[in-house]
Amino acid sequence: MAGAEKTFQKSTLDKDLAKVAQLERASGVVSRGYAGQGVSLVFLVIVGIVAAVLTEGFSGSVFIVAAAVLGGYMALNIGANDVANNVGPAVGANAMSMPLALIIAAIFESAGALIAGGDVVGTISKGIVDPGAMASAEQFIWAMMAALVSAALWVNLATWIGAPVSTTHSVVGGVVGAGIAAAGFGAVDWSKMYQIAASWLVSPVLGGIIAALFLWFVKHQIIYREDKIAAARKWVPVLIAVMAGSFATYLAIKGLRQVVRIEMSTALLIGLGTAAVFFAISYPLIRRQSERMENRNQSLRRLFTVPLIFSAALLSFAHGANDVANAVGPLAAIVHAVEAGEVAARVHIPFWVMVIGAFGISFGLLLFGPKLIRMVGQQITKLNPMRAYCVALAAAITVILASWLGLPVSSTHIAVGAVFGVGFFREFYTRTSKRRLEMAGPNAGKPIERLPPGEISYRRLVRRAHLLTIAAAWVITVPAAAILSAAVYYALSLVL
User: Which of 108, 158, 365, 384 would disulfide-bridge 317, Cβ 3.0–4.6 Å?
Assistant: First the structure.
């Protein structure tokens, strides 16, 4: 009977079926890679249809439809690239999963864009180009379209190579290039450009230094204390209060500035009051949560997890409120120029335009965001909840300081710079800290002079390849977008 059973075995058929199954799995993987592009295309088609319906009857509605599609494309790229800075550290620290991060970021980005995105924005990207230098409204429309195309293409390329870049700087470069091509070098306010160039250095350095200082405080006051839990009960409520106060101030001066104008002094008072309230709330909660916790770092990480999730949500809200203008600002300017037949530096943004920006950012995040989220949160340096919390604090506080000093900083550069600052500080601390050398490894408790030479050797905790790639992308963002924008403008002027 056994021999009879063997005669019915078809080894060749089994191998062929295995190959077919493997081919089906490979096809599934490939098709998933194109699913995002398909959904994006459907979104842009819907945007074009909605714009056509809402502008039916206008003589220049074709321009509005084209601009709406380009604005939607730019919003998709903002979601794919820029939002990673808000939730990447929390994902890298395992404080929340990738699906949860995408859902939270999409909800709060959209809420920030629609609630606090504002009715009036400077559409010529912080006033760097004089709209009066344009010869006609038609010339202005071509310039804004060229700026949208170039900025979106550049951010798309940066996302593809895995480099988080500033979408604001991309739009600035696009507007500058199109402005020069349309009206000459005199149309550009070069003093503004010098400030933006200075922010390339100021933003990441300031964010990195502040993040490193917070991490130094956490290590000295909590992590390397004999009784970690007692130290955490004392200082974690303080850090939560600092976080709450910082974000309250941040949202007051940035995220809500289009809803109500708040002065810096008032924003600081709001932040101080919020900090006091959150300290009073968090102090008993931390004591209760820390009861019966083991005296180890893993216990400390659990205390930072929930505050880190809240910080990611608040950063996403503020980002949506501010950076949606990068997608819909030029679009709103085009809509106004077509409808009014004139060029204006500041215009009213229709609600349907804001919806395009909000949904575009959310779709871009959900479809393409994970790549940059992993880059920021996992591939630059290793993060845990304490380190990621320092990054979030540094992002909020740096923006507040920059606003107070009048410095034009990039939230992307700040957040990524803070991640690098945490990594480089860990390298420095690993090599030089006497407290760590005394408490770490098998020689814990030995005096520093008794440790064998090289017992704790110098380790590289930051990937230099990513540092070089990101720095290079930052430096060339404005000139690359400007050159591309000028080329697109010349092409449009020749064709049309």
Answer: 108
Structure token pair of residue 327: 């997608």
In this predicted model, what pLDDT tens digit does every residue of 413-451 receive, in sequence order?
888 999 999 999 998 888 876 665 565 555 444 444 444
Does residue 303 contact residue 282 with C-beta atoms inside 8 Å? no
Q: What is the pLDDT of residues 293-326, one digit of tens each?
A: 888 888 888 899 998 998 889 888 878 877 777 7
Alpha-carbon Rg for the chain in angstroms: 26
CA distances from 410 to 29, 200, 319 (A): 36, 8, 11
Alpha-carbon distance 205 to 418, whole Å? 8
> Do the beta carbons of residue 435 and residue 228 sit within 8 Å?
no
Residue with tokens 């077509």: 338
Print the SS3 string covering the chain: CHHHHHHCCCHHHHHHHHHHHHHHHHHHHHHHHHHHHHHHHHHHHHHHHHHHHHCCCCCCHHHHHHHHHHHHHHHHHHHHHCCHHHHHHHHHCCCCCHHHHHHHHHHHHHHHHHHHCCCEEECCCCCCECHHHCCCHHHHHHHHHHHHHHHHHHHHHHHHHCCCCCHHHHHHHHHHHHHHHHHCHHHECHHHHHHHHHHHHHHHHHHHHHHHHHHHHHHHHHHCCCCHHHHHHHHHHHHHHHHHHHHHHHHHHHHCCCCCCCCHHHHHHHHHHHHHHHHHHHHHHHHHHCCCCCCCHHHHHHHHHHHHHHHHHHHHHHHHHHHHHHHHHHHHHHHHHHHHCCCCCEEECCHHHHHHHHHHHHHHHHHHHHHHHHHHHHHCCCCCHHHHHHHHHHHHHHHHHHHHHCCCCCHHHHHHHHHHHHHHHHHHHHHHCHHHHHHCHHHCCCCHHHCCCCCCCCCCCCCHHHHHHHHHHHHHHHHHHHHHHHHHHHHHHHHC
Closest CA to 292 of 306, 302, 280, 282: 302
Query: What's the angle, vertex CA 121, arms to CA 117 and CA 126, rounded to 5?
Result: 120
Distances (CA, A) of 22 to 16, 18, 31, 145: 10, 6, 14, 45
Q: Is 278 left (phi over 0), alpha (psi -120 to 50) or beta?
A: alpha
- The whole-model pTM stands at 0.82
Interior/surface letters 138-176, b for 16+ CB within 10 angstroms, e for the rest: bbbbbbbbbbbbbbbbbbbebbeebbbbbbbbbbbbbbb
